[in-house]
Amino acid sequence: MPTISTSSPTYATVDLSALTHNLTQLRRLLSPGCEIMAVIKANAYGHGAVEVARSLIAQGVTRVAVVSLDEGIALRAAGITVPIVMLGPLFTEQLHDIISHRLTPVISDRALLPTLAQATTSLTTPYPIHLKVETGMGRLGLATDELLNLIDSDQLPASLKIEGLMTHFADSDGPTTVQTEHQLALFQSVVNGITARGLSIPLIHAANSGAAVRYPRSHYSLIRPGIMLYGYHTLPTSIPAPDLKPVLSLRSCIAQMRTIPTGGTISYNATFMAKRPTRVAVLPIGYADGFNRRLSNRGEVLVHGRRAKLIGLVCMDMVMIDVTEIPDAAVGDEVILIGRQGTDQITAADLAEWTGTIAYETLCAIGPRIPRRYRNV
User: Are 289 and 301 in contact (CB under 8 A)?
Assistant: First the structure.
């Protein structure tokens, strides 16, 4: 995979060998006959959907999932030819483009079926769809009895074929198993009902990353890993996690240095006041790049392998750090915001803890003006 050349002082590095490692770890969990449908929505959780898709396909992944029409079209425009499943909500205005780009819709509302049927009547073969059953997430999906009634009513248009059946777990990484066990039982009852009716659905899938580890019974034909592909998990500490490697690192450099006296302030609203003469380094990254404003006066970065604290409010385009205890810090020095430097490491999970969120959001928030550089070593 070629490296994208850039003169940007702030950029993310995406280690495709770490992605391959994580894929291998997940494959070791699979039940017999189960495969991986890689979730690359939200620009592959901030890592770059096209490059991640190409890398995973090269490693034998034969199906990917996105959430929106635009995400699917972007992959097709980049030459991705494997099946692309659209997990998100659908609108009648989108159906023509879904079909023309050969995207596989997940049907959560049977009201869409007549329009979809009309749009596919001229095709030479039935168009594949997946049906989603709502088992407890409280979001998208057909009720269990509604789905079985749809099949019993023989109202599924002949121009469509049910390729897949799915649900989504709400608490697969939670401290207890009660909700997930309930959802799994409901979903299994639907699977049993379909089997009893003599209908064979090739692709049955329920497990996200957490369920892939904790609930082998949920593997079925496919698992849908997302966050674990990228090196993170939110499993309880009591659950052994796969050996994962963070795929993305984020770095910047010192753009300017200054020393402020005792009593001097930094950034908007003077939320930081120096208690001693303080050496301040300015970094060219801010909340417009996805570097969360809640890191203000809380977060840390690595300079010369040592931790430096963020001081003052994170600005739209810049942030300041205290390098008083790193006397050799100078303009142009590399600064690690996510990643390893020396013997220390800062992860997306660390940033998430400092900002009261999860690694998912931290990674997805890294903005488009941050160039991604890809390596495979």
Answer: no
Alpha-carbon distance of 234 to 357, in angstroms, equals 11
pLDDT tens for residues 234-291?
999 999 999 999 999 999 999 999 999 999 999 999 999 999 999 999 999 999 999 9
**Residue whose entry in the numeric block shows the structure tokens 């809640």:** 294
Whether the pLDDT of residue 191 is over 80: the answer is yes
11, 41, 230, 232: the active-site residue: 41
Please choose, from the candidates 296, 170, 305, 225, the residue with its C-alpha nearest in 3D space to the C-alpha of residue 24: 225
Active-site annotation holder among 45, 230, 268, 309: 268
- Give the CA count within 13 Å in the CB-facing half-sphere of 175: 0
Active site annotation includes 215: no
Residue labelled with tokens 């596919």: 120
SS (H, E, C) 343-369: CEEECHHHHHHHHCCCHHHHHHCCCCC
Mean pLDDT computed over every residue of the chain: 96
First to last CA, the chain: 10
Residue with tokens 């970065």: 301
Report d(CA 253, CA 260) in Å as an integer. 20
pLDDT of residue 7: 82
| 83 C-beta neighbours (distance < 10 Å), count | 17
- Fold of the domain built from segment(s) 31-230: TIM Barrel (3.20.20)
Domains of the chain, residue spans: 31-230, 248-375
For 248-375, CATH number? 2.40.37.10
Active site residue 132: no
Distance CA(353)–CA(338), nearest Å, equals 13
CA dihedral (16, 18, 19, 25) positive or negative: positive
| DSSP string computed for 43-102 | HHHHT-HHHHHHHHHHTT---EEESSHHHHHHHHHTT--S-EEE-S---GGGHHHHHHTT
